[in-house]
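Q: what sequence does this backbone want?
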């Protein structure tokens, strides 16, 4: 791979930025443009990993991207959903958020005139969520994404208590997202929720291959919901 550095532009830069975000480095957006902020965070990363601190993502620096993502078993990639495990992994509710540019355009489920191109989520999940949606688009194609309403955005970060409970919702950390809430209402089981249908099997496999949990598939309610936290 060609080294990327200040003024580089393209998908590799974006991948690098998403990686930095997932590792907890402060980048407000992964836009594929290697600017001074990306350079500064790259240098910090290099210092922390005893690499040559030149701000250039050469082969040795890039190696970390594959090493880190390959070395964690899927079952340990995310925390359990209890409060202590969540705070230890993600930090306080509502913090460490980033803006994620979506691989395909969505609509706001409760006002479909509103186009959603970016969402806010936890910086540790941005890269993984991007992968999920990118693979969803690859697998289904634009037409079926729309037909199956996989583009009906129902929310991500939302600092609130769990419905009918006192503990924090996983949405409070920006570590969960909902799609098509109209057809997958909270208390609906697989007899009513559209996301329980066979056509969505591939979508859920993509979600689960990133270690995310479907409440629908594991508990048969809240089929709109996927979270980067184990039950
Ligand atoms: Zn949800």
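A:
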């Amino acid at each position: 791979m060609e080294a990327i550095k200040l003024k580089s532009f393209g998908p590799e830069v974006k991948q690098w930025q998403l990686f930095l975000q997932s590792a907890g480095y402060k980048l407000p957006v992964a836009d594929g443009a290697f600017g001074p902020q990306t350079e500064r965070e790259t240098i910090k990363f290099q210092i922390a990993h005893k690499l040559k601190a030149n701000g250039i993502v050469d082969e040795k620096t890039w190696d970390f991207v594959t090493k880190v993502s390959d070395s964690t078993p899927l079952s340990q990639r995310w925390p359990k959903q209890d409060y202590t495990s969540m705070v230890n992994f993600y930090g306080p509710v509502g913090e460490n958020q980033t803006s994620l540019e979506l691989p395909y355009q969505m609509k706001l489920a409760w006002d479909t005139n509103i186009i959603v191109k970016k969402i806010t989520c936890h910086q540790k999940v941005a890269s993984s969520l991007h992968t999920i949606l990118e693979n969803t688009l690859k697998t289904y194609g634009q037409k079926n994404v729309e037909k199956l309403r996989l583009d009906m955005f129902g929310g991500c970060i939302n600092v609130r208590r769990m419905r009918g409970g006192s503990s924090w919702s996983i949405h409070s950390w920006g570590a969960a997202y909902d799609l098509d809430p109209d057809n997958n209402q909270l208390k609906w089981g697989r007899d009513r929720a559209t996301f329980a249908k066979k056509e969505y099997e591939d979508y859920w496999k993509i979600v689960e291959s990133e270690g995310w949990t479907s409440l629908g598939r594991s508990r048969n309610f809240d089929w709109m919901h996927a979270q980067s936290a184990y039950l």
